[in-house]
C-alpha cells in the first residue's frame, strides 16, 4: 500500500472527485478526514466506504471559507490520527454567469471557497507540518484556470489564482520538507459538469478539445493524488500536473 500509515484531509469529499480521492486513499492504506459543508448524508456514505476498507475516518462539517472551520478540520485530524501528512484542497462550487450579469455574491462565494479556502486550510496545517518536517499539500485546479472559460470567470479566476498560490506556497514551505503541487483536471463526469456533458452544443465544443475523445471519470483522476501524496513524490514540488485527456483550450 502506497499510503500505509499516512493520514489525510480531503476537503469536499462527500461527493464527486473528493469522494473518489478519499476512498482511493483508504484503499492505499491512509486514514482520512472526510469534509462536507451542507450534506452530511453524502459524507457519511463516503465514511462508510472507508470503514469497509478497514481504515480510520472522521467526518467533519466545515466551511473552508471560514478560518475557524479550517482550524477545526486540522484539530479533528490530529485528535483522531495524531498527525496530518496530506492536505488535499478540493472543496469547490460553481456559480455560472457572464461577467456583466454576475453578482458580487456569485463572485465572492466561488473565489472564497476555491482560493481563500485553500489558503485557510493550508495555513491551518502549515505549522503542524513544519514542526514535523513533513507534509504533502495538493491543490485541485481546472482547465478553466489555465485556458479560461466563458460564463465562469469567478471559477476560472480562482483556479488560476491557485496556480500562483501553489508555486508561492512551495517556496515558503519547501525547506520544511513540505511539497505543494496542483492537479489540473479536465471535464470529469460529476454533478458539477452535468450541463457541459448533456447540452449537445456544449458537449460538442468540449469534446472537440479533448484529444482522447471522451470525458474523464473520477477513477481517471484519483491515482495521481495517490502518487503525489506518497513518498515516491518526495522530490516533486511547485508543479501543475494535467489530468485532462489532452485538453486543448
Question: How would you portray this structure in words?
Answer:
This protein is α/β, with parallel strands linked by helices and 249 residues long. It has one domain: Rossmann fold (3-Layer(aba) Sandwich), CATH 3.40.50. It is 48% helix and 16% strand. It is built from 9 helices and 7 strands. It has a 7-stranded parallel sheet with strand order 3-2-1-4-5-6-7, with helices on both faces. Helix 1 (16-27) packs parallel to helix 2, helix 1 crosses helix 9 and helix 3 (67-81) packs parallel to helix 4 (104-132). The mean pLDDT is 97.
Short description:
With 249 residues, this protein is α/β, with parallel strands linked by helices. The chain contains 9 helices and 7 strands; from the N terminus they run E-H-E-H-E-H-E-H-E-H-H-E-H-H-H-E.
Number of strands: 7
Q: Give the rounded overall mean pLDDT.
A: 97
Beginning-to-end CA distance, first to last residue: 36 Å
Which series of helices and strands comes N to C?
EHEHEHEHEHHEHHHE
Instruction: List the strand order in the largest sheet.
Output: 3-2-1-4-5-6-7
Structural class: alpha/beta
CATH fold descriptor: Rossmann fold
Helicity range: 40-55%
For the sheet with most strands, the description reads:
7 strands, parallel
Amino acid at each position: 500500500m502506497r499510503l500505509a500509515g499516512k493520514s489525510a484531509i480531503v476537503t469536499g469529499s462527500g461527493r464527486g472527485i473528493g469522494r473518489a480521492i478519499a476512498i482511493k486513499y483508504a484503499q492505499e492504506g491512509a486514514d482520512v478526514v472526510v469534509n462536507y459543508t451542507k450534506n452530511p448524508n453524502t459524507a457519511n456514505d463516503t465514511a462508510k466506504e472507508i470503514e469497509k476498507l478497514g481504515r480510520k475516518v472522521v467526518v467533519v462539517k466545515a466551511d473552508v471559507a471560514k478560518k475557524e472551520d479550517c482550524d477545526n478540520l486540522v484539530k479533528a485530524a490530529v485528535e483522531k490520527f495524531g498527525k496530518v501528512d496530506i492536505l488535499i484542497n478540493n472543496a469547490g462550487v460553481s456559480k455560472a454567469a457572464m461577467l456583466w450579469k454576475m453578482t458580487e455574491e456569485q463572485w465572492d462565494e466561488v473565489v472564497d471557497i476555491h482560493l481563500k479556502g485553500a489558503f485557510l486550510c493550508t495555513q491551518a496545517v502549515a505549522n503542524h507540518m513544519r514542526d514535523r518536517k513533513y507534509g504533502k499539500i495538493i491543490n485541485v485546479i481546472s482547465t478553466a484556470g489555465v485556458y479560461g472559460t466563458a460564463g465562469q470567470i469567478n471559477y476560472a479566476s480562482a483556479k488560476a489564482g491557485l496556480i500562483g498560490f501553489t508555486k508561492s506556497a512551495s517556496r515558503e514551505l519547501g525547506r520544511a520538507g513540505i511539497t505543494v503541487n496542483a492537479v489540473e483536471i479536465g471535464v470529469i463526469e460529476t454533478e458539477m459538469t452535468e450541463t457541459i456533458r448533456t447540452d449537445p452544443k456544449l458537449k460538442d465544443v468540449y469534446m472537440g478539445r479533448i484529444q482522447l475523445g471522451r470525458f474523464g471519470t473520477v477513477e481517471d483522476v484519483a491515482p495521481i493524488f495517490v502518487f503525489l501524496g506518497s513518498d515516491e513524490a518526495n522530490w516533486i514540488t511547485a508543479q501543475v500536473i494535467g489530468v485532462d485527456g489532452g485538453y486543448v483550450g
